[in-house]
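Input:
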Amino acid sequence: MQTLSVPLEAYQLVAALLFTIGLIGVLVRRSALIIFMSIELMLNAVNLSFVAFSRQHGQMDGQIFVFFVMSVAAAEVAVGLAILVAIFRNRETANVDEVHLLKG
Amino acid sequence: MLEPVLFALFSVSAVVFAFNVVFRRNAVHCALHLVGVLLSLSGMFVLLNAQFIAAIQILIYAGAIMVLFLFVVMLLNVKGEAPLLTPGAWKGFGFFFALIVFVELLYIVLSQGGTEGTPAAAVPLPPGFGSPAEIGRILYSTWLFPFEVTSILLLIAVIGAVVLAKRKFA
Amino acid sequence: MDATFLIASAVKVLVVLGFVLLGVPLIVWMERKVIGHMQDRIGPQRVGPFGLLQTIADGIKLFFKEDIVPDGADRVVFIIAPALPVITAFLALAVIPFGDTVRVAGHDIPLQITDVNIAVLWILGTTSMGVYGIVLGGWASNSKYPLLGGLRSSAQMISYELAQGISLVSVIVMTGTLSLASIVRQQEHLWFIVPQFFAFVIYILCGIAETNRAPFDLAEAETELVAGFHTEFSSMKFALYFLAEYANMMVVSGIAISVFFGGWHGPFLPPVVWFLIKLSLFLFFYVWLRATFPRLRYDQLMAFGWKVLLPASLLNLTVTALVVGLTA
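Output:
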């Protein structure tokens, strides 16, 4: 598959759509778990954009970047979910609106 | 030509799954639809000659990170949220803000404002593009330092997660 | 993409599919017979010669059982979940080479459904997706014991996947390829079980844990969890989980054969026969283990995975990399 019959803009458009949907999730949902998933969605939108540009330029640095984004996402999820479990243990809730005080 | 058909299939499924991630009430369903998004994107990565990235997208994202998500959702047994689309000032603001961002992104994509220096058509690919061997070669030469930094980041994350998840803080 | 390629691929897919679907009843019969004799019983003997048709009869019985979806279960997920492990097992089988390239009517046909350059990653990816079937089955049942079984298995599979992947990486460091067919070709004179014995031990221990077989079958531990994740499943849904378990055993054995035991290589007999002999020996080994070892306790299982297997596999990888680096 040497030629790219789908234009770059089409991939960018899908990436933009996914990013926006993720953004809506972060802004509208109140469950910390789903906010987390929406952030993953936004990261993936950016990954798609990276890979599409990498293909267009014929250079693999974009794919390396995706690799780094994945590692950072893994780290983020591990720590984030640990924080969530700790909060849930103390407060019995995953709703971000109910966790707004600095004291336990 | 097979490629546009596959692209249409993957992009539509990705966007539909993504909508469900955000607008489902049950957290487990959200996580499952996110897995759907990840798999669709993996298919698109293959279309874009990024086989290695496609494989680790399934292996790491769908196979490990999302299983961890599901594990926590089931462990905490979080109840579904209150009705999602009840009118509220903040939610309206959220939708409005997201719309603005989308219009901006659309403007950038369609006006090709950010694509200065990008070839108009995709360039012919060198052999081995996107293969594990080539990725490894670049990763351990040009990107060696960032790679090592990532490993330290992951180590910190592991230690942080263990400390946070411990029941008693000493 | 010419016509011969399409026809050859279709035939190979049908052969592998038929082999697994017909092989699973045979393996179940073998398991019951062998365990019977190991426990000083005689095993099934009523249906067909030597009881060979017993599992076929059981399968037909499962077909006609009432299909129950419990109240309060998540219907859609409950229906989808049993299919997932079967699908992923068949996806993984697609890249396992079961014979050398043969010449049929002037065309070279590799005896492998497809040879991709990321085969090992593909297998690790598909098997890691298999856990969804168990986790979701446990969750969708909306019942206490299945949920516990599902949670156990998700933690278990994430933990053992790591060591499994790293043990395979040490072989990849030696061969420099991710394609299973090339890995098999490099073992013509020396099987990798010799230089990579520790990697093999780690791999097979993790493989047993990944397939949820005794002594690592904590996900269904009937003495503690009734029947674990598939407590609420009946009829064909249960049969699918059953099929997936045995298909996954074939996948794990097939990879072990290709990566450590020389794949189709062997003297005198044709390659495909050698592959089948090795496969049967591996499946016998599975059954043998089940008859020999008691089930581990859950904390022992997790400690074993994280504190023994993972460091051991990393050590093995480091030593392999050093040797390969210094001798290259």
